[in-house]
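ugh ok fine here u go
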Amino acid sequence: MSTSSITERRDLRTGTPVWNVETSGEISVEPLIAPSKADVVVVGAGISGALVAEAATARGLSVIVLDRRQPGHGSTAASTALLQFEIDTPLIELADMIGHAQASRAWMRSFRAVQDLAILVRRLNLHCDFRPRRALYLSGNRLGPTELAKEGRLRRAIGLPSSFLNSSDLRNIAGLIRPAALLSEGAADVNPVALTRGLLLRALNRGSRLYSPAQLAEVVARSDKVEMVTSAGFELEAKAVVFATGYELAAGVPAKGHRRSSTWAFSTRPQRQTTWGEGQLIWEAADPYLYIRTTADRRIIVGGEDEALNDETARHALLPAKVHALQGKIRHLLPWIDATADFAWAGTFGESEDGLPSIGRLPDLPNCYAVLGYGGNGITFSVIAAQILVEALCDGNDPDAEIFAFRA
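structure:
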């Protein structure tokens, strides 16, 4: 493959995400000013690229990470970082789409990914406000109480820790007024920018190199290596390349089965009183769905109102109206909280037809791999991606790789 522009250039977010206010943890970066070689070149220094770089260096691979932005300043900064094993497509629906066995494996792998990330954060002693959480999946226009009960039974049958709550149970546990919900163990939340920086620093400490601003202008994929040229004219060579460019698709990465849209979010001021229950993650079986979480400093992050809108100017113009709509929803659900918006932002959001990410080898480019972690639990998918890709880079075979492979 040879092109004049390898990745799209998009305005991935607007407004001010709550994570970007604290800049004291910024990673020192340097431009690429000379030809260089590595086992792996990772394109993208967001959460996906950081997880891949950390995992690859942990296995002894030499790594170069490139990004046109400061690390963690693309879509990662717009993430609300609800770490759920619950895939956007309910298990009862995914089973009909890809079969019960495959759907069960996808959901169980997602569950294990959150646990694996918790272990990694502890092992590396990352300071990123990682907090184990339970999650509440509220009944809505997609799944009512009857369907939600069926979803809970199917989850429990494959070993997932989800319990059905009727309206009385839900009110007693969290003070919420809804007909029904599923309560799931094994979720978490995190500061995504701090997590990304921490992972990159661990990779750098093992000898990884991080260059920014830097972007590829040409890639030639061969059977034994990948040769690259940056927009500044410097040559790179690697045994493999991983495109972790998120919603800025790289040339040669299939987009079949995926679509990009827009999402909006805001963060409240720190709350002075109790929020709800034990601060469970909240999301809805609805379209569009609402999602809510707390932060370590007692703010509430509210997101949703997604639209099939792929125009950055229009997305930005809608920010005040979307925040107002989200405030109305949270005031209806949680009338006792202070819903004043302290930060507000919008971002590009990706969805797939089945709710699953695409991870793996690029069909027409030897030694090239990519991550499309589209969906509401993108960080969870990024963990899976790092595991699958690094196993492939080390000539291994992840047993679930075919479930998440790029569609033909």
